[in-house]
Amino acid sequence: xxxxxxxxxxxxxxxxxxxxxxxxxxxxxxxxxxxxxxxxxxxxxxxxxxxxxxxxxxxxxxxxxxxxxxxxxxxxxxxxxxxxxxxxxxxxxxxxxxxxxxxxxxxxxxxxxxxxxxxxxxxxxxxxxxxxxxxxxxxxxxxxxxxxxxxxxxxxxxxxxxxxxxxxxxxxxxxxxxxxxxxxxxxxxxxxxxxxxxxxxxxxxxxxxxxxxxxxxxxxxxxxxxxxxxxxxxxxxxxxxxxxxxxxxxxxxxxxxxxxxxxxxxxxxxxxxxxxxxxxxxxxxxxxxxxxxxxxxxxxxxxxxxxxxxxxxxxxxxxxxxxxxxxxxxxxxxxxxxxxxxxxxxxxxxxxxxxxxxxxxxxxxxxxxxxxxxxxxxxxxxxxxxxxxxxxx
Length: 393
Hints:
Elements: H1 2-22, E1 34-44, E2 57-60, E3 65-73, E4 90-98, E5 102-112, E6 115-116, E7 118-121, E8 127-134, E9 142-145, E10 150-153, E11 156-161, E12 163-165, E13 169-175, E14 182-184, H2 188-191, E15 196-199, E16 204-210, E17 218-225, E18 228-231, E19 235-240, E20 289-290, E21 294-298, E22 304-309, E23 312-318, E24 326-332, E25 338-343, H3 348-355, H4 357-392
Parallel strand pairs: 1-5, 10-19
Antiparallel strand pairs: 1-2, 3-4, 4-8, 5-6, 7-8, 9-12, 11-16, 13-14, 13-17, 15-16, 17-18, 17-19, 20-21, 21-22, 23-24, 24-25
Helix pairs in contact: 1-4
C-alpha cells in the first residue's frame, strides 16, 4: 500500500511538472492563443471631391492581422470607381483578417483614423468588417505646378503648363505689364490679331504667332473646382525683335558692256507661315512633385519621370494609452511628403496573460502545492493512527 501511494504521488507530481513545462510552449495550431481585443485601421488621405478613389490607402497597425479587402460603394449600393463626386455619400467596408494563432474577440473595439467605427466579427472570430459612411470634403483647387516664363522670337510660339488637384477645368488669361488689361486667351485674336491658341482645358496651352507687342505680358492659369477657383503665378513672355535681313551685295561686273543690264524680275512674295512647333525636349525639374502614394519629377509639358512609392520614416507624435490610440508621423526620406497613421497601445503583458501562458504556470504550481499538502496530510494521518495503536497496546 505504501509503495502504491508513493507511485501515485510520483505520477501526479510528474504530470504537474510536465503540464507546467508545456504551458510555456505556444500551441500555434490553436486559434485562441491570442485574442485581439482592439483593432486599429487607417484610410489616408481623407476623401476629397475629384480625388481618385484608388489614392486612398487602407492599412492596419494591429499585430496579428492584415487588411483582406477594401470596398467602396455609392449610396445606391453600386460599386464606386473613378473619382469622388460632390454631394455623394460613400460606404467604406474594410475586411481585416486574423493571422494564424490569432482571433478577434466578440467584443472587439475598432478604430478608423483614431475614431470609433462599427465592426462586425464573423462567428469563427477569424475576420472583422469595419463599416463607415463617408462624405468627401470639398476643397478649392490646389496648384502644385505653376507655369514657367518663355523667351520667343517675334511671330514664334510658346507652350505653358500648370498642374492642380481638386480642379474640374483650367482656363488661361493674359495680363498686361501694367496690370490694367486682362485678356481671355480664347479671344486672343481680338487684342493680338493673327495670334491663336491651342488649349486642352486641363492645364496646357500653346500660343502661336506671338507678336512683339506681347513682350512683358504675363500668362496665368485659372483652375476651377467644386470648392472655388485658384489662379496660378504669372509667367512672363519675352519677345525678341526679328532681325532685319541684310541687303544682298551686288557682284561687280568684270567688264562694262554697252548692252543695258536688264531690270531684275522681282520674285513673287511668299506669305510667311507660322513657325511650326519643334520637337519638344523634356526638361524635368529638380524638385519633387508628389501625392499621397507616389513622388516624381515633372516636365513643363506634364511628362513624369523617376516615379516611385514613398519611403516613410515614422516617429511618434502622440503616445497611445489604454483608452485612446496614439499617432505616428511619417516623412518620406526622398521627397519630404508627410502623412500620419494610428499608433496602437502596446499591451504585450496583457496579451501574455490573455494567451494563458502565465495562467497555466500558476495552475501547475498550485496543483503541485495541493498535492504536497495532500501528501503531508496523508502522512500526518498515518502517523496519528500508528500513535493511537501504540497507545492502545
